[in-house]
Amino acid sequence: MSHLITNQAKLVARVRRIRGQVAAIETALRQERECAAMLQMIAACRGAIDGLMSEVIEGYIRMHVIDPSHKPTAAQLAAAQELIDVLKSYMK
Is domain 2-90 classified as CATH 3.40.190.10? Predict the structure, then answer.
């Protein structure tokens, strides 16, 4: 999982932002804020989690599905990129 260690600071920063978003949702619930505002906050949090998931999946594909130490072919690299692109568009 060296790809996670390499990007650890970036991933941890994303998780901290997500934690802040979740805390803001809890605060908004306790303050009985408007439903529309709550839904927007929840959607933003979901988007942040999807972004984190997308980044981890991309690293997994690039480092474990297409093992760079085994010299993947151009076709394998293209297929991996296509899969990454499809996953990213699905998670938007």
Answer: no
